[in-house]
Amino acid sequence: MVTIKAARISLRGWLIWLWTWVLDHFRSRPKEKSQAKVPTTNENNRNTTLEKQAKEREQKIVSLTKDCKKLQSVNEDLKERNSIYNRDQITLQRECRQLRERKEDLSRKQNENEQQVDTLRRDCSQLRTRNEDLSRQLSESEQQIDALKKDCGQLRTRLSEVASMQLTEGNPNIANLRDQNRPEKLAERLSELYDNQWTDCYQILIGNFKKTEEESIHILLWIVKVGPHGQRKVCFFLTHNRMYMSLNHAISYDICLDRSQIVLTSAKDLLFTVAGTPYGEHDKALDIFVQETLHRLKSFRNKNFKSASSKIGQEIKVILTSTIGEAEVDVCSCFIEECIRICWLMCIKDPPMYIYCDKEAVFDHNKYVPYTKTGQEISYVVWPALFLHRNGPLMRKGVAQGESKKERARNDKVNAANWEKLRPYHEQEY
């Protein structure tokens, strides 16, 4: 803008000077003509020269006029351009001012945004901390819920066990169909024992050990039953088998029953001892606790019957070895082991199942089936009858050899005579 103004000033000054010179020149020429004299040669030459100079000057004037017009055109163009530039400058200044305002506004908004970002960051940090606290509380709540669910499940299970215990405790008429060792299954196993292992051992005792039919039957039955007077007297009864009528207890069954009752009685006494309450002087809560504990003990015993029957089996085998002989025990080991397992499972029932093999005077067909002979009276028992519990319903009938009254009278005379012969030995030993 400064350059354009300077050019305009110089051009104006030059035009003023040129216009002044032209006016002066034309003003002086009439005077010269009026004062002119007769030209001489020198003057002619001078005039010619002056005319040439005038023409040259006129040409210069025309040229300068043209240049002036051009300059005026340029000046106008420059003015117009200057006006445009001015307008552009004003527009640019306005835009610059707007940009400055916009910059200030953006700067202010940036500051506000930065403050908001800082606020949001603080809020985010607080929310993150709150979220972590809530997550920890949620995790703890979930753990508490899981624990409560577990406790609730345990309480439901316990309640179900208590209800089941109250329903089934001492009630053999309600059978657990999921129990593979329920009374009906044990009755089937006892029948299979008689049909299979008993038959094999019976044939071995007759074939390999030269036992009589009745002796073999007594040995196999004695594995299930033992006399009330001790082991040596049982040996005497086995040797003189007609005296076998006195046997009325099962060795496997009786020992299993004795061990099972001892465990429950000891556990019950121990619980009352730990509670510090004498038996009979306790409240209902303690009774429920003792019943639940005994119920769990019974359940545990039902699940782990194999180890318990194995330990009892070792004890029974020692007794059998000292009575019927080691060789006989070895050949009858399968029969003995299965018999002990079945007897143990029967004894741990609540109430225990009952094996009945008493020799009655009259053959009761409701309890026994004939072996090879039938009759009005029983000669000897071959296989015991099984009841759901003592004085309970019959599960399986036993097997007994029948005899008539005449045979019974004749056999009684023979047995009395043998008893008199063996009385000294009997009195000495027993």
TrEMBL record:
Q: Where in the cell is it found?
A: Cytoplasm; Mitochondrion matrix; Mitochondrion outer membrane
Compositional bias, Basic and acidic residues, is annotated for: 403-413, 420-430
Q: Would you tell me the Gene Ontology cellular component terms?
A: mitochondrial matrix; mitochondrial outer membrane
List the GO biological process terms. Answer: mitochondrial protein catabolic process; mitophagy by internal vacuole formation
What Pfam family is a match, any one? MIEAP
The Mitochondria-eating protein C-terminal domain is annotated at: 182-400
Superkingdom per UniProt: Eukaryota
Assigned keywords, A-Z: Coiled coil, Cytoplasm, Lipid-binding, Membrane, Mitochondrion, Mitochondrion outer membrane
**Molecular-function GO term, any one:** lipid binding
Gene3D superfamilies annotated for this entry? 1.10.287.1490
Q: Locate the region Disordered.
A: 30-56, 399-430
Recorded family membership: Belongs to the MIEAP family.
Name this polypeptide is given = Mitochondria-eating protein
> Species name for this entry?
Potamilus streckersoni
